[in-house]
Amino acid sequence: MPTINETLLKLKESKFRAGFHLYEKERAYVADKGMNVVRAHAQDFIRTRLAPAYPPNDGKQTPMRGHPVFVAQHACACCCRGCLEKWYKVPQVRALSDVQQEKIMNLLMAWIAEETRNED
């Protein structure tokens, strides 16, 4: 099982995934709210929009912008069940376990932390 750092490196090899970055507004949101609040939002988004076996609007449930977690989900291929299956071999028709949800959240938060450290 790859580590978070190994997964982030693999994602950077994808031209599409590597094209996602936090804009100033999203970086400011993280700075203003703090990582604990952003983590709580990530947990809620994953639980409600990604974890069900048949999420509503699957494939279209994650906006491209508007919240740092949404951008992270696209950058990390955790935006829909199809991407989870393609990138991580997670079956689409089975609800995500608590452990799977936690791993996704940790990956998203690592990506956000990296993006907020690398301010240009």
What does this structure look like?
There is one protein chain. The protein has 120 residues and is an all-alpha fold. The chain has one domain (4-117). 62% of the residues lie in helices and 0% in strands. The protein has 7 helices and no strands. α1 packs across α7 (98-117) and α5 crosses α7 (98-117). The longest helix is centred in the last third of the chain and has 20 residues, at 98-117. The radius of gyration is 13 Å and the shape is globular. The mean pLDDT is 93.
Provide a quick synopsis of the model.
The chain has 120 residues and is mainly alpha-helical. 62% of the residues lie in helices and 0% in strands.
Primary descriptors:
single chain, 120 residues, mainly alpha, globular
Number-wise, the strands total: 0
C-alpha geometry: globular
Output the structural class.
mainly alpha
Question: How much β-strand is present in the residues?
Answer: under 5%
Helix content: 55-70%
List strands and helices in order, with pairings.
Elements: H1 4-12, H2 15-18, H3 24-33, H4 35-50, H5 68-75, H6 81-88, H7 98-117
